[in-house]
Amino acid sequence: MPYSYTTEGRIVHVSWHGLVTKDDLVAFGVDMPRVGQELGFAPDVLHTFDAVTGHSFQPIAAYMYSLLQKRVRIPNPIRAAIVATTPEGAALAKVFTTLNRTRNLEMKVFANEAAARRWLARQ
C-alpha cells in the first residue's frame, strides 16, 4: 500500500509514496470512511505526494473511483488539502481534484505544507 496515515486532531495526514495503482485507490476509498467511523466524525485530510513516483492506472479507473466516491455520505463539510511539489505529485493531484464529485468535500492543491495546513485550519 503506497500510503500511510496519521491522525492529528481533526486532520488525517495521508502520506503517499511510490507508484499508485488502481488497487491503491480502491483501498483508500475503503480506508477513509472506516477511519472517520473510528474517529466518530468526518475529518479534514492532508495529502502529501512528495514521495510519489507516478501512477499506473488508466483514466477510466480514476473515473470509476470518483463515481464510487460520489456515493460516500460525508455528514459534514470537510476539506482535503493536497501538497504537490513534484511533477508526479502534481499529476496525481490533478486526477483527484478534477474527478472530485463527493458531496461535502472541498479539495485544493498547494505548493507547500504550511499553506495547506493554514487552509485546513480555516485561517
**Inertia-based shape:** globular
Count of helical regions: 4
N-to-C order of helices and strands: EEHEHEHEH
| Class by alpha and beta content | alpha/beta
N-to-C span: 33 Å
Major sheet characteristics: 5 strands, mixed
What is the residue-mean pLDDT, rounded to a whole number? 88
- Percentage of helical residues? 40-55%
Unreliable spans: none
How do the strands of the widest beta sheet line up side by side? 1-2-3-4-5
Structure explained in plain terms:
A five-stranded mixed sheet has the order 1-2-3-4-5, sandwiched between helices. Helix 1 (22-39) packs parallel to helix 2. The chain has 123 residues and is of the alpha/beta class. 41% of the residues lie in helices and 33% in strands. The chain contains four helices and five strands; from the N terminus they run ββαβαβαβα. The chain has helices at residues 22-39, 59-70, 87-99, 113-120; strands at 3-8, 11-20, 44-55, 78-83, 105-110.
Quickly describe the structure.
By secondary structure, this protein is α/β, with parallel strands linked by helices. The protein is built from 4 helices and 5 strands; from the N terminus they run E-E-H-E-H-E-H-E-H. It has a 5-stranded mixed β-sheet, sandwiched between helices.
